[in-house]
Amino acid sequence: MSMIQKIDVFPISLPVTQAFRFSSGSAGVAGGNAPIVLVKLTDSEGEVGWGEGRPMPQWAYETIESATTAIRTYLGPAILGQEIVDRWGLHQRMHRAIGRGPSTGMPVAKAAIDMAIHDLCARSTGLPLRSYLGGSQERNTVTLSYTLTSHDVNGVQKEIIAAREKGFHHFNFKAAVTPETDVAVAKAIRQAAGPDAFVWADANQGFQSHEALTVARGFADAGVNVLEQPFPADQLQLMRRLRNQCPVPLAVDEATVSPADFFHYAAEGLVDFLVIKVTRSGGIWPSLQQIAVATSAGLPLLVSGLTDSLLTKLAACQLAAAFGHQGPAALNGSQFLDESALYPDKEAIEFDGSVHLNKQSGIGVQPDPQALTLYLKDI
C-alpha cells in the first residue's frame, strides 16, 4: 500500500488584478499580491498530488507565514508514512499535531494537505476526483456565480451587463459594506439580472443586530435568494433572534468551520443552505461530513471560496459535481487573480460562466513548475 513519502510546501504570491471590499476588509488591492500556500505530496510509488490553502487574515486567523510553518514544522512531519487512502487517519494525525480550540485548528493549512491527498488518491486510481468520491464522470459542469464589487446602483448595473456578456447568469454581492445602500443595490441586481438569476447576499459577519432584520426585509422584497453570515461567527444568539422574523433564507459561512459547527446550526433550524467552502473547512474530507449533515437535515448546497486559485476551484467543483450540485458556485478567484501563468490551460476549463471538468484523473490541474518558481516567496 502506498504511503506518503515526501511533502513540499510552496508559499507563493499571485498578482491581484482588482480588489473587492467586504465588511471585515478586502481581498487585496489591484497591483498587490495574494498569498497562497501550495502543497505537493509524493507517495512511495512516485505519484504526486497537489493542494492549496488560501490564508486570508482579514477573514480569519491564518497567514501565509503561519500556514507555511504549520505544514513544514508540524503537519507535514506528522503525516509522513501515512497510508494515502486513509483520509480518516490523515486527519487524526493532523489533529494530534495541531489540535482544535472551539473549532478546527489551522483549517487552511490542513485543507492544503487534505486536497493534495485527495488529488493523489484519485490519480493513483486513474479517476477524476468526482468519480473517486462516488460521483459520475458525466456530471461535469458547474455554473459559477459572478461576484459584484460595486456598492451603488449604477456600478452593479454596468457590472452585470459586462458579466452577462461573458456568460454569467447568477450573482453574489457583499452586503453590510455600506448597509444604507444594500437594499437599493439588491433591487438593481435583481432587475438587471432577471427573474431566473440566483442572487446571493454575503454580509461576512458585518451587520449589527438592529440593522439585520430591516435589511433582510428589504432583501426579501428585492428578491434576494439567500443572506449569508449576517452576524459575527460567535454570535449564535443573534442568529436565533433573526431567524424568528427573517423573511429571506439564511446561510452561515465563517461560523461553520467544522462539521460539528454546522450541525449546531442545522439542528436548531437556523439555516436554509450548507455553504461548502473547502479551504475554510479543513479540506474535502471534513466537507464530506458537512454534506452528510446537510443531507440528513434536508438542506441544499451552495459552494463558495476565498478568491482561491484554479486548483481549489476545480477541487470544489469536483466535490459539488460528485453530489449532483450544478451551481451556482461563488468561486471567484479568476475575477481577482492573474493565474494565467500558473495554470496556462485555464481557458479550456473555465468559460461561459461555468467550470467544465474533464476526465483527467485527480483534481484535473497542476501548477506550472516554472511559474511556481517565479511566484515563490522566501519563507
UniProtKB/TrEMBL annotation:
This is Mandelate racemase. Keywords: Isomerase, Metal-binding. Pfam families: MR_MLE_C, MR_MLE_N. GO terms for molecular function: metal ion binding; racemase and epimerase activity. Belongs to the mandelate racemase/muconate lactonizing enzyme family. Gene3D superfamilies: Enolase-like C-terminal domain, Enolase-like, N-terminal domain. It comes from Ktedonospora formicarum. Residues 153-249 form the Mandelate racemase/muconate lactonizing enzyme C-terminal domain. PANTHER family: O-SUCCINYLBENZOATE SYNTHASE, O-SUCCINYLBENZOATE SYNTHASE-RELATED. One of its GO terms (biological process) is amino acid catabolic process. It comes from the Bacteria.
